[in-house]
Amino acid sequence: MDSVRRRPFQLPFLSSLYDWVMRLAGGRHAVPALCGISFLESSVFPIPPDVMLIPMCLARRDRAFLLAGLCTLSSIVGGLAGYAIGALLYESIGAAIIDFYGYHDAFAEFQQRFAEWGGWIVAGAGFTPFPYKVITITSGVVHLDLLVFILASVAARGARFFLVAALLWRFGPPIRTFIERNLAVLTILFFVLFVGGFALVKVLL
C-alpha cells in the first residue's frame, strides 16, 4: 500500500478519522456515508470526501458519475450550512471552527480577496484543495450574494468531483495513485483550462 493511503495526516486524531472514513468507503452503508462526509466537510469535518469517492468509484466504475453527483449535491447543501454558520453564528460557532483547525491565515487571506474577485474566488478556491469550510463560512461572514455562492459552489465542487470520477471511470485502478498524489495539481490545472475556455469563447464571440 502506498504512503498516500497509509494515513497521510500527521496529527493522531486526523489519522484515526482518515482510517474511519476509509472503512466507511468499504461498508454496506458507503453511499449514505459518502453523502454525510461530503455534507460535513463543507463546514466542520477535516477529511475531504475524495478519500471515500476514489475507492468507491473504483469498486463500481459504472456508478462513478452517480457517486460524483451525490457527492457534489451533498457538498453544496453542506456549503449552505457553512454559509449560515458564517452569516448567523460566526461568533459562537464559526470562529471556533476556524480556530480549531488553525485556518486563521487562510480565513484572513480569503476575506481580502472577496472584494476583488467575489464569486470567482469561491469557484476557484472551491475547486482546489483549499479548505472548503473556510470558503463557506467566509462567504457567510461577508454576506456574499446567496445565488452567486450557490452557482459558484455548483461549478467548483461539481467540476472537482466529476473530474475525479471521469479519470477513474476511464482509466481504472492504474490511475488511483496518480490522482491521490497529484489531486491539487490536477484540479488547479483543470480550473485554469475551464476558465480559459470561457475567456476564449467570450473573445471569439
Automatic annotation (TrEMBL):
Signal peptide: none annotated. The keyword Transmembrane helix applies. Keywords: Membrane, Transmembrane, Transmembrane helix. The chain crosses the membrane at residues 64-85, 146-171, 183-204. The keyword rRNA-binding does not apply. This is YqaA family protein. It comes from Marinibaculum pumilum.
